[in-house]
Amino acid sequence: MELKRAAEGEKGFEKVFAFLRERLLAGSLKPGDRLISERELATLLGVSRPIVREALRALTVLGIVEIRDRIGTVVTQPDVSVLNDFFTFALAQQADMLDDVMQARVAIECQAIRLACERANIADFERLQRALAKIGETIDEADAGGMADFEFHRAIVVASHSETLMVLHGSLAGLLTHSHRSRRELVQAFPSMKTYLIDDHRRIFDAIIARDPERADATLRKHFAIGDEYRRRAVVGDIDRTSASG
Amino acid sequence: MELKRAAEGEKGFEKVFAFLRERLLAGSLKPGDRLISERELATLLGVSRPIVREALRALTVLGIVEIRDRIGTVVTQPDVSVLNDFFTFALAQQADMLDDVMQARVAIECQAIRLACERANIADFERLQRALAKIGETIDEADAGGMADFEFHRAIVVASHSETLMVLHGSLAGLLTHSHRSRRELVQAFPSMKTYLIDDHRRIFDAIIARDPERADATLRKHFAIGDEYRRRAVVGDIDRTSASG
DNA sequence: GGTCTGATCTTGGTCAGACCAGTAGGCTAA
DNA sequence: TTAGCCTACTGGTCTGACCAAGATCAGACC
After folding, report:
1. Distance B102 CA to C18 C1' (A)
2. ipTM of model over 0.90
3. Could you tell me which of B194, B242, B240 has the C-alpha nearest to residue B222?
């Protein structure tokens, strides 16, 4: 049935979106490629231009393509920054999602550190070393400290040389920054956290240098656990009883 | 007279998007609320309806609102599943990345199995049990066997009760179905794989039942490693020397 | 011959008005 | 009162048009 429903049974928007998704997933549309013009796309798929624009706009907010005024629409390198939009909205109402996303972060980093132990090269070590040093230097600054912390963890993922892990980790970064920030703010209140932060990252670094995946994973996992513990105790005002860091 | 010059100076789409974002972040638009009609929104902001639709479509792909045909646009509860689109696109553009994507899958599942050890309930156990049984039943069938294999691993992630991990795993799964298939095809050629497949999954299941995260993680990790080993040896035609499974 | 300039084509950005198809709610008729 | 219809409203879409500015290339100028 349905006379106007073109070849596929999808609605206008879905049709265009599906058409583009197909090409994008199949690889016939790669980053850097320029799409055909909106008008052509419209006539090609038998829909109106506003519909095409809806689909392109959808892909834009997904960070898949970029609409350049008077130039055309080009496929972009997947850019995780768009996810900030989503996170911003989502966090505005559903703050409990943070813990859940943190699980994914732990997953990514623990796998990354294992790979890093196998694959890390001199450049990776140096990056980790720099980040480690920075953590020490900025231990008293909330903002810079959080940044240094993030850079260290990011360096771990980079050292894994796994593009996929980097993409996923980058995606979660939006949430992590919040987390890192608030964690750092605890430092001001609880001096014992300084030791935890510096020593823990040092141990993690050492494990990578030693190329010991099991130890690295375990150390990193413990690092996260202790961080959780700190935050939990901070809520109830009880801190400085975290002895089991070794 | 600068007719189309927007009051705020933003382009049409940005204006509408910003307008809605404001209300959403401020909380004056909460999940469940219904937006005013597209027409009203258009006249209210001094833009055309197609522009309003672009903005609404953008919010739709971000999972913030839902456009209901002939009903209206309502604010939805944010959920991470919208990231599925993004990840699918983003990961698809790394063509040779199958092995790399596998790393992410290992990451997700190993974290999931740890959480599963803590959080799994009876229903989860039952689902795992069913999947385990199915693996045994379909050990000689490539297609059904691959499906059963996937279901078991999926059940692990579901048992983690982490929405984020489920979403990520779901995204990766699509890219790895091929992998499952080809692995299963090895079974026909190398009988020793039957034992590996059945016993390994059994051990994984047992570890979850025992609620032992470390053992579960290690067992699952070994499971993946052995699978890799099989495939590697299959390439060079040398198989059935995989003694180092214990 | 080579370079600069400008008209023209093309592209995205937007608008206005229109029609369709269901949905919801009020109104009418039984 | 109640069943059923009618209409206003909603999203879904199309058509055709105009604008502004980058891209292109012919023709003028050096």
Report:
1. 53
2. no
3. B242
